[in-house]
Design goal:
Blueprint lengths: L2 E12 L2 E13 L4 E6 L5 H8 L7 E6 L2 E3 L4 H11 E5 L10 H10 L5 H14 L15 H12 L6 E5 L7 H17 L3 E5 L3 H4 L4 E6 L2 E3 L1
Helix pairs in contact: 3-4, 3-5, 4-5, 5-6
Bound molecules: adenosine-5'-triphosphate (ATP) and magnesium ion.
Length: 222
């Protein structure tokens, strides 16, 4: 089992009262699955994804990754977990506008390896992998939305994560481009045996899931 989460709860405290965005949720994710998470707006999908990726601390509950418990309340532990294992793709691409496609990927690599020449080579390889061999020196604004999302995927893959998390990666794309991105995610899942967890509103995108889960008020439903 790649991920085991047990009795996970995230409570947000607000003046109006407290809400459990994720409510005592337990789930096992076997290695190599393409997991899709659907559910109405506000059902806790993003909250769950952020906790899975070590970006948000839950209120209570545990996460066992590859047999090892991650201390979800220790910032250092979480940072190590993220940098070793996790890649993120967001709906809004989150590329840096004044860096080229290659440079956007290189900043993710620089954290680990200071060798600029090697990093550049690897960044270009990643861009080739997502079909952007001829766009390496383009800036984000010179790329289409689908191409920008492919750069974001290449960046997420920079450190060879075994877990790729995507929050509505096709939310800003038309159906044709969405299919392109979903095909790339499927390829990453199948060829590199990367476990993918994707939040989506689209029933078409959810069809890509080998394990499909649905949330309602922070609880798993069938
Ligand atoms: N930082 C926060 N502070 C307080 N409440 C929050 C915070 N983040 C999320 N919430 C609340 O937690 C619940 C779950 O939010 P979440 O963003 O996980 O939903 P979601 O399923 O991703 O929704 P969407 O489909 O709209 O993206 C919502 O009711 C939301 O208002
Ligand atoms: Mg969300």
């Amino acid at each position: 089992m790649l991920i085991q989460i047990k009795n996970l709860t995230k409570t947000y405290q607000r003046l109006e009262g407290a809400i459990n965005a994720v409510d005592n949720l337990s789930l096992d994710i076997p290695r190599g699955e393409f997991v899709t998470i659907t559910g109405t707006s506000g059902s806790g999908k993003t909250t769950l994804l952020l906790i899975l990726g070590g970006l948000l601390q839950p209120t209570t509950g545990s996460l066992i990754y590859n047999g090892k418990e991650i201390n979800l309340h220790n910032d250092n532990d979480l940072a190590t977990f993220r940098s070793k294992h996790v890649g993120f793709v967001m709906q809004s691409f989150a590329l840096i506008p004044y860096l080229t496609a290659t440079e956007n990927i290189m900043i993710a690599l620089n954290v680990k390896n200071k060798n600029k020449h090697e990093n550049k080579k690897r960044a270009i390889e990643l861009l080739e992998w997502v079909g952007l061999a001829d766009r390496t020196t383009h800036y984000p604004k010179e790329l289409s939305a689908g191409q920008q999302q492919r750069v974001a995927i290449a960046r997420a893959l920079a450190n060879n994560p075994d877990l790729l998390l995507a929050d509505e990666p096709t939310g800003n794309l038309d159906p044709g481009l969405s299919e392109e991105i979903l095909t790339i995610l499927k390829e990453i899942n199948q060829k590199q045996s990367t476990t993918v967890v994707m939040v989506t509103h689209s029933p078409v995108a959810a069809e890509y899931g080998t394990l499909r889960i649905k949330l309602n008020n922070g609880i798993l439903i069938n």
